[in-house]
Amino acid sequence: MKKTKKEKTFDAVKMMREIRDKISVETQNMTFEQLKEYINNKLVKGNSKLIGQ
How many alpha carbons fall within 13 Å on the CB side of residue 3? Predict the structure, then answer.
């Protein structure tokens, strides 16, 4: 039996790494209080809630 290799149309790992790197650059010199504010602002803009809330 011959296996065929499918070409990916979407790479979730690549996307996750790009997002993580972008967030790291944006938050690298923030204090804890600034980081909390950054996260809260992102949650409000994205209309998201923290897990468990």
Answer: 3
